[in-house]
Specification:
- It is built from 20 helices and 20 strands.
- Strands 13, 14, 15, 16, 17, 18, 19 and 20 form an 8-stranded mixed beta sheet that branches. It has a 6-stranded mixed beta sheet with strand order 4-10-9-8-11-12.
- About 30% of the residues are buried.
Length: about 600
């Protein structure tokens, strides 16, 4: 640490603020906020070894430090956000959102126009938003247009111009979309009352507007102006319908911000919902790129500052997924466990997941190889592997009541079946139904051949069976010197348990996971391939028996007899009644008579 840095650290104030780190070239490389500048900044230089290598590199590059003292930690957070956006330091979190979102503007003019725009001009006009959904803006503007006759021309409707009768009503007036304020056919007072109602609707206070309109309707009714009362009632009905669609929780939840966060590798995703009178009037999700292994709490603080600035939120309560260390007497942080606020938090989390899923689908469409890589990464993580399972081989035994023992192997490459690599094996050294010995033989033959032919070995072997078959497979791999060089797992019949060599405790994988889906596909494929081969071999075996020489006895009947009596010799020694119980009286007599004649 240089003398210059030491002197700065010794004079740091114990107050909230923002600190800026500069490199030797005088460039800002990091901006941070602190509840106590003295404690926070000093902590960077007190650790001999930082947990994060990136942080250690940052500290080595710090040549100068500058600080800005503020009143509260929230002020520090907002200032930090502004400085990060301005200077974009190399080691700060990257907020990936460069879009310009639209606003609804109530223009600062006599007889104000209402329209949506992407330009925020500080001319005294009122702006509502920004909105992340153009559809939402169109819905609101359509509602306003249906309820109120607001002008859309850009004429200067000053008192002087109207008195001089400079303007004539246009087509909008004649088709009923405007009441003609340009010719003084609509008073400023009436127009202004409409603007007040629209302002409340855009703020999410549709209930207040409904109450106001009900008073007007009742007054019209009292004055026997039933046509005007009906028009107001139609407006109330439309507003009630709009309110029903937009209210998601108790209307008592007013002016509240909701935040949720999900992290994945080096990225974080934060969703923001703005709630007014129980209605969600704004919603937005951003992606953040971590630079210094920031915690979810630190990332959420940064996102809160960004969103509240961007959406000009003045909410005094924030619903968050976990306790925040930030202290501010003007803010209340709520971590709900039950009720309507919990419902809002879950809704925000659902928005985060939808955003992540859509982003993933877009990436996979643009780069299909990314989908495979992501799936292999997930399998590596779920199955606790040391390398990506790009090449997987799955084995299964099959026998017919001990007869015609065979085994099969399915192969997946890059998470897809590679059918040209499937293999079946006729068991050569094992007599009788011995699955363990059969598995040992097949595994030895398969990988001895691969070693002899210098073929690339798989990254994962899947044994369809429990601990017994898995142990048999490991015995062969040990003989070949492959133990520990290839990952091996055994899967139980119900696919609920994954076994590892020399580990009696099984691993349970989420039934909805893609990893389990791939393993299920492997097993289904090896079953299908093995059964087909076994059926063919049985058919060939049956054809070679005396049963195939009996007129009127087909392969299926011959299979049933062999399955029940185990051999042709046993069938010859069996009486008519026993044979008939298996294949019926008519066919039983054919078989019985045939063997009686040939004795």
């Amino acid at each position: 640490m240089s003398h210059h840095i030491e002197s700065i650290l010794s004079t740091l104030p114990d107050k909230p603020g923002v600190y800026q780190y500069y490199d030797e070239e005088g460039k800002i490389i990091y901006v941070g906020k602190a509840k106590s500048l003295k404690k926070r900044v000093s902590s960077y230089f007190q650790k001999d070894r930082h947990e994060s290598g990136k942080t250690a590199v940052l500290v080595r590059k710090i040549a100068d430090i500058k600080t800005i003292v503020v009143d509260t930690e929230m002020d520090a957070l907002l200032l930090e956000n502004n400085l990060i956006k301005k200077y974009q330091p190399r080691y700060n979190v990257n907020l990936k959102d460069d879009k310009t979102y639209p606003w609804i503007c109530i223009k600062n003019e006599r007889f104000p126009r209402i329209f949506y725009t992407r330009k925020f001009i500080r001319d005294g006009s009122e702006y509502f938003g920004p909105y992340t959904s153009v559809k939402m803006i169109e819905t609101l503007l359509d509602l306003v247009k249906q309820l109120y006759k607001i002008r859309n021309c850009s004429l200067n409707l000053s008192v002087e111009n109207i008195e001089k009768k400079k303007f004539k009503v246009c087509l909008e007036y004649h088709i009923g979309n405007c009441k003609g304020p340009c010719e003084d056919w609509q008073s400023f007072e009436e127009y202004d009352e409409n603007i007040k109602d629209i302002r409340q609707i855009l703020k999410g206070n549709a209930g207040a507007v409904i109450g106001h309109l009900k008073e007007i309707m009742q007054q019209f009714s009292a004055d026997m102006k039933f046509e005007e009362a009906q028009e107001v009632k139609d407006k109330i009905d439309q507003l009630e319908k709009f309110k029903t669609k937009s209210v998601v929780v108790n209307p008592a939840i007013h002016n509240v911000d909701v935040f949720s966060i999900r992290t994945e590798d080096d990225f974080a995703y934060v969703n923001f919902l703005k709630v007014m009178n129980g209605s969600i009037i704004q919603g937005h999700t951003i992606e953040m790129k971590r630079k210094l292994d920031e915690t979810p709490e630190e990332l959420l603080e940064i996102a809160i500052a960004d969103m509240r600035t961007r959406f000009q939120s003045d909410a005094k309560e924030m619903i968050v997924p976990f306790d925040m260390q930030m202290e501010d007497e003007n803010l209340k942080f709520t971590v709900p466990k039950i009720g309507d606020k919990r419902h809002l938090l879950l809704l925000s989390e659902k928005n985060v997941l939808n955003f992540m899923r859509e982003k993933q689908m877009q990436m996979e469409k643009q780069h299909p190889e990314n989908k495979i890589l992501r799936l292999l990464e997930q399998m590596k993580k779920d199955l606790r592997l040391t390398e990506l399972p790009r090449h997987i081989e799955c084995f299964d035994n099959s026998n017919f009541q001990g007869a015609y023992p065979v085994a099969a192997m399915s192969v997946f490459k890059n998470a897809k079946p590679s059918k040209k690599d499937y293999r079946h094996f006729n068991i050569k050294t094992v007599e009788g139904p011995d699955d363990f010995a059969s598995m040992e033989e097949v595994i030895f033959r398969r990988y001895k051949r691969m070693l002899d032919e210098l073929q690339p070995l798989p990254q994962l072997i899947v044994i369809d069976g429990g601990k017994g078959q898995l142990s048999s497979a490991m015995s062969s791999l040990e003989k070949l010197g492959l133990k520990g060089k290839i990952a091996v797992i055994g899967i139980a019949k119900k696919l609920e348990e994954i076994y590892y060599p020399e580990d009696s405790v099984p691993l349970y994988i989420d039934k909805k996971s893609q990893t389990l889906h791939i393993i299920q596909q492997l097993r289904d494929e090896v079953h299908r391939f093995g059964i087909t081969h076994h059926r063919n071999r049985r058919s060939k075996g049956v054809v070679k028996t005396e049963l195939s020489e009996i007129k009127g006895i087909g392969e299926k009947t011959a299979e049933e007899l062999l399955k029940h009596f185990k051999s042709v010799k046993k069938i010859k020694e069996t009486g008519l009644e026993e044979i008939s119980k298996v294949i019926g009286r008519a066919k039983g007599e054919i078989v019985y008579d045939y063997f009686r004649e040939t004795r």
